[in-house]
Design brief:
Blueprint: E1 4-10, E2 14-21, E3 24-32, H1 35-38, H2 48-61, E4 71-75, E5 86-88, H3 91-99, H4 110-121, E6 125-128, H5 156-169, E7 178-184, E8 188-194, E9 197-202, H6 219-226, H7 233-237
Parallel strand pairs: 1-4, 4-6
Antiparallel strand pairs: 1-2, 2-3, 5-6, 7-8, 8-9
Length: 238
């Protein structure tokens, strides 16, 4: 018996979907969302129906019957800290990412899309390697300010996948290696993988600027900008 798995990855500028039969890729598509479309929405969560429709339309274009699916797997969003790996999508998780996310982020849209499609197909849905995967040792949480500890928020899904792929290519176990992996996308993060866990990282607001992130900027100038009266909190966060 083979397994057909639909995979959904929502990013800041695109929604990526792929269908696998066991480990064989059947089809894949990156659905780009240009600025003029994204800017029509006040909040990221408001994009949910638009992105869901994009996914459904593409599946119809491929003439794929979702009743053939074994499960749907999504990128994990801004939950409370969790360990790496897979989690079943349920109503409690949906409430968290839709109504009480740790932070507004495109990754929060993947689980609701997966759940919607999986529910119609009558199969389970899962998230894998949440953005909020936290396996930090205490020393990695230390910053220059006691009131602002460093947290483990990064592109876990992609960096773990690449680390596992690299380990396989050299005939070794991912859990036995020390690997530094850089994710270059709408945001940029750099992760240190040690024996199967991410024990330190440079998050996408600590490091270089990117298409969707300002990156590290001078603190004094940022503070002055925040108190200039020209911008509200929401604008500064964007």
């Amino acid at each position: 018996m083979s397994y057909k798995i639909l995979v959904i990855n929502t990013g800041s500028t695109s929604t990526k979907i792929a269908l696998y039969e066991d480990e064989k890729e059947v089809f894949t598509k990156s659905l780009s969302h240009p600025d003029d479309l994204i800017n029509k929405f006040d909040d990221v969560q408001d994009q949910l129906n638009m992105r869901l429709e994009f996914v459904r339309s593409y599946l119809e274009e491929k003439e794929f019957d979702i009743k053939e699916l074994s499960c749907v797997v999504a990128r994990g969003g801004m939950l409370l800290p969790v360990k790496s790996g897979a989690y079943v999508v349920n109503e409690l998780m949906l409430d968290r990412v839709e109504n009480r996310p740790v932070m507004e982020h495109a990754s929060n849209l993947a689980a609701p899309i997966a759940y919607d499609i999986a529910k119609e197909a009558g199969v389970p849905s899962y998230i894998y390697d949440s953005v909020m995967t936290d396996e930090f040792p205490d020393i990695s949480r230390i910053s220059g300010m006691p009131d602002i500890p460093r947290n483990s928020t990064s592109h876990v899904l992609n960096t773990r996948a690449m680390a596992i792929k690299y380990a396989k290519s050299i005939g070794k176990s991912y859990n036995s290696l020390n690997i530094i992996v850089a994710h270059l996308g709408g945001g940029i993060s750099i992760n240190l993988h040690h024996n199967g866990q991410i024990i330190d990282l440079v998050s996408d607001d600590e490091g270089p600027f990117s298409p969707e992130r300002a990156g590290r900027v001078p603190c004094r100038q940022l503070i002055n900008l925040c108190y200039s009266g020209e911008f509200d909190k929401k604008t500064m966060q964007r």
